[in-house]
Amino acid sequence: MTRASLDKQPHEVASMFDDVAERYDLTNDVLSLGQDRRWRKEVAKAVDARPAQKILDLAAGTGTSSMPFARAGAYVVPCDFSQGMLRVGKRNNAWLPYTAGDATRLPFKDDVFDAVTISFGLRNVQDTDAALREMHRVTRPGGRIVICEFSHPTWAPFRTVYTEYLMRALPPVARSVSSNPDAYVYLAESIRDWPDQPALAGRLQGAGWSKVAWRDLTGGVVALHRGFKES
C-alpha cells in the first residue's frame, strides 16, 4: 500500500492514486455522503462547455468529471498523471482521448483550450503556482479556468466538526470501502493544510488570471474558483 507524504513528490502521489483507481469513484461517493455528485454538477455549470469548444480536464482520474463536457458537445481531454486512473477510465470510456500529463509541465501547446478545469486535484500537485501558470499558458486569450477544491468552512463551529470528521471519521470509513485506506489519511491531511479561499484566489491572480472570484459550496467545505485569461 502507498501513502503519499505532504511534500507531494509526484511519483508518490501517482502511485497512491494508482492503488485506489479501481474503487475511487465509489469511495468518493461514500466519503462525501453523495455530495460529490452535486459539486461536479456545479463545476459543469461553471465551465459552461459549448459544442466544439476545447476543454482540458486536469486530474480527471477515470474521466467521470469529463463526461458532462462531452455530453455538452465539447471536445474534452481528460488528463492525469496516474496511469492506473487512466487505465480504468480507458476501460470504461475508451472513446475519450485520455492523456498522461503532469500539471506543472503540460504536454500541450500555448493558447489551445477554451477552458481548463481541475476538480479535487490541485492540492495534490507538488508546485501549485507552476500548475496555475501552466493552465494559463495552455488557455486561449479570453478563456477561463474553473477550480473545484476542498476548502475551509466559513462557520467556525461547523469548521471544527468538519476537521474532526476529516481526521477521525474519514480514515475508518475509507478502510471499509477503499482499496488503499492509508491514501485517504494523506487526503484528509492535505485538505486540512490547503490554503483558504482568499489565499487561493491570490495565487490565481499571481499566475496571471484576471477577474478571479470564488463561490462556496456546502458551507465552504468546497470552493469553486474561477478566472479568465485576458484577451
From TrEMBL:
Pathway assignment: Quinol/quinone metabolism; menaquinone biosynthesis; menaquinol from 1,4-dihydroxy-2-naphthoate: step 2/2
SUPFAM superfamilies tied to this protein: S-adenosyl-L-methionine-dependent methyltransferases
UniProt organism field: Streptomyces atrovirens
Gene3D superfamilies, alphabetized: Vaccinia Virus protein VP39 (3.40.50.150)
EC class name: transferase
Any one Gene Ontology BP term: methylation
Reaction catalysis annotation: a 2-demethylmenaquinol + S-adenosyl-L-methionine = a menaquinol + S-adenosyl-L-homocysteine + H(+)
EC number: 2.1.1.163
InterPro entries per UniProt: SAM-dependent_MTases_sf, UbiE/COQ5_MeTrFase, UbiE/COQ5_MeTrFase_CS
Name of the featured protein: Demethylmenaquinone methyltransferase
Keywords (A to Z) from UniProt: Menaquinone biosynthesis, Methyltransferase, S-adenosyl-L-methionine, Transferase
